[in-house]
Amino acid sequence: MVGPLTWKAGALQAISIALPPFAALSASTEAKRNPNLGGVNFSIDEKGEVAVKATNTYRAIVVNASGCSWFKGITASIPVEAITGLAAIFSSDTEISVGLNENQTLLVFKSGLTTAISRLLVGKYPEIDDRFVTKGDEVAKWTFDRMELIEVCRRIKKLAPTKPNLVLRLNGSKVIAELKNVFTQQLGVVIEGEGQDFAVNAEYIEVAASLFRTEEVQLLFINEFSLTLVAEETDALKVLMGQIEMNSI
Hints:
Elements: E1 2-7, H1 11-18, H2 29-33, E2 39-44, E3 50-55, E4 59-64, E5 76-79, H3 80-89, E6 96-100, E7 106-111, E8 114-119, E9 140-145, H4 146-159, E10 165-171, E11 174-179, E12 183-187, E13 190-193, E14 198-201, H5 202-211, E15 216-221, E16 226-231, E17 234-242
Antiparallel strand pairs: 1-6, 2-3, 2-5, 3-4, 4-17, 6-7, 7-8, 9-13, 9-15, 10-11, 10-14, 11-12, 15-16, 16-17
Helix pairs in contact: 1-3, 4-5
């Protein structure tokens, strides 16, 4: 057995809330092609911090998980179903010890009288870090009031639960949030750099923005294919969001 390591109380539950929405569904084509996409990936980054990641290739999240320890030199993914199941089994009020078997195929979680085992996914986690926009490299930055952005996303989800496409359009110096032919609302957005209309999935923007604890969040653009959600006050969390084709709306 390698370890065990210690995870702080509540760390497992926080991961189970934040990461799974960005992973691929286990029965999806993406997960069948690369099983790692159906899991939450753990590694130690170049700063020596624990990096926890999830992606389905067109959206992704990276969190510096200060509440977790991880095994040096090992990168591995835990199935989403295991993460959510473990979070339900263990109390959020107690620390959890995490051990790795010698073959590096199983994780052993223990807390008090409870022991649970999770397999690790085979394959290699995709190299997507370079797709995130680094602060300072963006060609445009849109700064939103975080709660206002969350609230407009919730309205769009209620109005179009099966296709909640949030369109953000420039109207002179104003930014208009729109659900085509159904809903419009002006937002208080500060734009730096090049501005252009774009569309994203309101459900994923809401989930991502809800993970921050800041008054504002920024969307960083570097090309027309993807954008990155960040906050000025922290580098511990970043989310990659794929844009929706405007001509499909």
